[in-house]
Design goal:
The protein has 179 residues and is mainly α. The chain is 74% helix and 0% strand. The chain has helices at residues 2-16, 20-32, 36-49, 51-75, 80-87, 113-136, 140-163, 169-178. Residues 53-179 form the Phosphatidic acid phosphatase type 2/haloperoxidase domain.
């Protein structure tokens, strides 16, 4: 696991060494994709658009939130910011990492709740939007736009969680797959 964790730390270093404007972007993405947003923003919007889709978003959000906690009990998983200090692997050759308020999350890190819950709860909305686009257009681009936006959102959420050192890349991938 140390090899996987070390590779994740190196990847986070690369992300954090990007241009300064990216820091604000990643922090905004990780904040907006907080699982609470599913219940405070996505559910009401989905419910307003279509009651059935809204109820699906709510229930899937609740079940995936619960499953995420269960998975974290069994999988545990280290958090990058804490692992770097506890492992002492970087004692001789320190890594340059920036800490953010969200870096200090405690508790198990695997799988990423941001990725799992957001991915699961938004799926009914994405499929409904894809069906709507398919009814109104023959263009493959229009039909695939909701799914492409969904995939890009999950990618951005995953990268933001690695950027803020809340998760290792493999925990993000696990969260997306579980979602």
């Amino acid at each position: 696991m140390d090899v996987l964790h070390t590779a994740g730390i190196r990847f986070a270093e690369v992300l954090q060494s990007g241009p300064p404007w990216l820091e604000k972007f990643w922090l905004s993405v990780t904040s907006l994709a907080d699982p609470k947003s599913i219940f405070t923003v996505c559910f009401p919007l989905a419910y307003f658009l279509d009651r059935k889709v809204g109820v699906s978003v709510l229930w899937i959000g609740l079940v995936s939130e619960w499953l995420n906690v269960v998975f974290k009990w069994f999988l545990f998983g280290e958090r990058p910011f804490w692992w770097v200090h506890e492992s002492r692997l970087f004692k001789e050759q320190p890594v340059s990492m920036r800490q953010f308020p969200v870096s200090c999350e405690t508790g198990p890190g695997s799988p990423s709740g941001h990725c799992m819950i957001t991915g699961a709860a938004l799926w009914p909305l994405v499929t409904a939007l894809t069906a709507l686009a398919s009814r109104h257009s023959r263009s493959a681009v229009v039909k695939l736009t909701p799914f492409a936006a969904y995939a890009l959102l999950l990618l951005a959420v995953g990268l933001s969680r690695v950027f803020v050192l809340a998760h290792f890349p493999h925990q993000v991938v696990g969260g997306i797959l579980a979602g």
